[in-house]
Amino acid sequence: MAVIKLPFGRGNISESIPDNRLNGILLSGAHSYKADGEEEAIVRRAMEQPIHSKRLKELVKGKKNIVLIASDHTRPVPSKVIAPAMIEEIKEGNPEAQLTILIATGFHRPTTRGELIDKFGQEIVDRTDIHFVIHESQKDEDMVFLDTLPSGGKFLIHRIAAEADLLISEGFIEPHFFAGFSGGRKSVLPGVSSGETVMANHCSEFIDSEYARTGILEGNPIHRDMIYAAKKAKLAFIVNVVLDENKKVIKAYAGHFDEAHKEGCRFVDTLSGVDAIPSDIVISTNGGYPLDQNIYQSVKGMTAAEATCNPGGVIIMVSSCMDGHGGESLYDTFAGGEDKNAIMRRFLDTPRDKTVPDQWESQILCRILLKHKVIMVTKAPKEMVCDMQMDYADTVEEAISMADDYLNKTDGKITVIPDGVSVIVRNNRQS
């Protein structure tokens, strides 16, 4: 009997899987990678040797208005580790610089003060020489038009980012289920872009592309828009980190927004790539808090399971979802009881400029539900889960029993993905 630890909220669930049923465990190499030094030292070392860029303390000279784009409450970016090093270099290079930290909420809800303190620490949040601004993508009055994206969508960005004398960002790099990888250019789009811009970039045509998948940048139309946006916004410098299973920094990349990011992506690709182990039942998670706060985010972990689940098989998604569904449109899409084939046809018939909020997440979830039964082990209300055309279980053990009943056999093989957002599952099947 194998005992497997599954991240769940701020804790873990331990689950026993019979040896004769366990087909394999898909685990990122980040979980066993030995970092070369303490987190702060890793970040500072990267900043001392930036990739295709001058050091930050050189870039800030003569610049009055510095804007640092930082990740929001839905990302496990260790801003407490990254921000002090960046602030120190900014102040060293230009003591008179005015620093604004612009929180990249993308299409998410606004980050609260408590969440800022949790991310940055009380000392930084309370500093009088640093101004915090929370991006809200639906506030049209905050946005300015910069250009037209390759997709044809309008590129509207937060005025504070557009008016910066120097625009920089922090973030982290991990596999992303349709942008290929997180980090780098994503700080700008979707991070601090208008909701209208996000929807054009996340259109059904692009989401449906075979290149809009985990670990793919080349040919990815969503990535192409994002790179264009970051260039147009003049994103000048990034500090991106790679994290282990405990959300600790194991690598850092600093410098040019694209070149440093690509180098980080190459490392993550080597670290996170795993071969699919096809099974009738696949158990996945969203890596625990903060990425498993809602069903919306949990679709990411489901895509890892999708890549290794046999056609017609069952995905068991273990995700806290303490905040519920996380997207009203996502919930409404499925709660009306409309046939999933009809939902998908509606998405694919929607023009780029008519994309609606959360359509991309709904489209990916619909794609998964058309191929697999999904059972959620979660703290979200049972009624909510069932309304969204998924099944609910109180425990993993109960979910496996439900899967066995659905598959009409008790010996189906099980693949386990302890952290679904940390792996790039490679197979030869088309999504």
Task: Using the coordinates shown, work out and report the CATH topology of the largest domain.
Answer: Rossmann fold
Radius of gyration, in Å, reads: 21 Å
- CATH homologous superfamily name of the largest domain? LarA, N-terminal domain
Distance between the termini: 33 Å
Strand order of the largest sheet: 3-19-15-16-17-18
Assembly type? single chain
Number of strand segments: 20
What is the class of the largest domain in the CATH system? Alpha Beta
Would you identify the regions where 5 or more consecutive residues have pLDDT less than 50? none
Q: Assess the beta-strand content as a share of residues.
A: 25-35%
Average pLDDT, all residues: 95
Please describe the structure with a list of short key phrases separated by commas or semicolons:
single chain; 431 residues; alpha/beta; 2-enoyl-CoA Hydratase, Chain A, domain 1; Rossmann fold; six-stranded parallel sheet; six-stranded mixed sheet; 16 helices; 33% helix; 26% strand; LarA-like_C; LarA-like_N; Lactate racemization operon protein LarA; LarA-like; lactate racemase activity
